[in-house]
Design goal:
Layout lengths: L3 H7 L4 H22 L5 H20 L8 H25 L4 H8 L1 H8 L5 H21 L4 H26 L4 H14 L14 H28 L2 H7 L2 H14 L5 H16 L9
Helix pairs in contact: 2-10, 2-12, 3-4, 3-9, 3-10, 4-8, 4-9, 5-8, 5-12, 6-8, 6-11, 7-13, 8-10, 12-13
Length: about 290
């Protein structure tokens, strides 16, 4: 199949709109995952998500031999593993924290990317806002779920790795083909997590829901991420991530009936404001 270039040519929507579409899809998938946590562990749901995404992407893209060889393969494999472990940490966090809160705490990762190399007073102020927001949210939640906060912050570090590696995969020309290879590798490596998926194989509803989470939370948003990462630099991409806490909080409120406390809401707004006022970088070199 063709490379990410064919997807880009077929996608004329603005990057910000693509990003919002991806964010809505991702957090609808996350909300569906929360529903599954009553039957399966977060680790089992993570593996089902990876399996569903890998099967759909491999069937869609059918990566050629070049995608399974040499540096291209190892980069995709590393990207797939980092993404899978990031998703595992995120699911463990939303099993213990409200969706919007967990996403806001994850922003430590994008902040590291957005702030890297920054020297201006404006960027320093943006970083201060984001850190203040994260501290405010963590202070609210630390006593209630220390482990949830630690999982969310672990996901944050891995999210930074996702942005850096995802940019390399996108700019390397593999794009969605690289996603297919990487998620297939991660599904195999993390196959011990499948031991917790027993109830799924006797319930068509649970199986469809598990695969659907893979499509909503992985295939759609990560494929769109590859388009956006191809168009812009990784710091501008990190800036766009400011749209996600609002998206996650709205979905958590509407779908899961999770109402943020006032300190949490202020913390989320501080995170969004910090990434929004940060100095924008120029377009990436082609």
């Amino acid at each position: 199949m063709g490379s990410i270039g064919s997807v880009i040519r077929a996608t004329r929507l603005p990057s910000s709109l693509l990003f919002v579409i991806g964010g809505v899809s991702m957090y609808l998938g996350a909300a569906a995952a929360v529903w599954l946590f009553g039957t399966l562990s977060p680790a089992a749901v993570t593996w089902l998500r990876q399996l569903g995404a890998a099967v759909v992407l491999l069937a869609w893209r059918r990566p050629g031999r070049a995608a399974w060889r040499g540096r291209t393969f190892w980069l995709a494999a590393l990207f797939g593993m980092v993404t899978a472990v990031m998703n595992l940490a995120f699911y463990e966090s939303i099993d213990r924290l409200p969706l919007g809160t967990a996403v806001a705490l994850e922003f430590v990762g994008p902040v590291l990317i957005a702030a890297f190399g920054s020297r201006s007073v404006r960027d320093f102020g943006a970083l201060l806002l984001v850190v203040s927001g994260v501290v405010l949210i963590a202070d609210v939640r630390w006593a209630g779920s220390t482990l949830g906060v630690l999982f969310a912050l672990s996901a944050a570090v891995l999210w930074a790795g996702y942005i850096v590696l995802g940019r390399k995969v996108a700019r390397g020309g593999q794009g969605v083909d690289g996603l297919a290879v990487g998620f297939a590798v991660a599904t195999v490596v993390l196959s011990p997590l499948a031991l917790g998926t027993g109830p799924v194989w006797t319930s068509p509803r649970l199986l469809v829901l598990g695969v659907g989470i893979g499509v909503l939370a992985t295939v759609v948003p990560y494929a769109l991420d590859q388009v956006v990462l191809r168009r812009m630099g990784q710091r501008s991409f990190a800036l766009l991530l400011a749209l996600l806490p609002v998206t996650a909080t709205a979905i958590g409120l509407v779908v899961l009936h999770q109402v943020p406390t006032l300190p949490e809401a202020l913390g989320i707004l501080a995170v969004v404001a910090g990434l929004t006022i940060r100095t924008r970088e120029g377009p990436p070199a082609l």
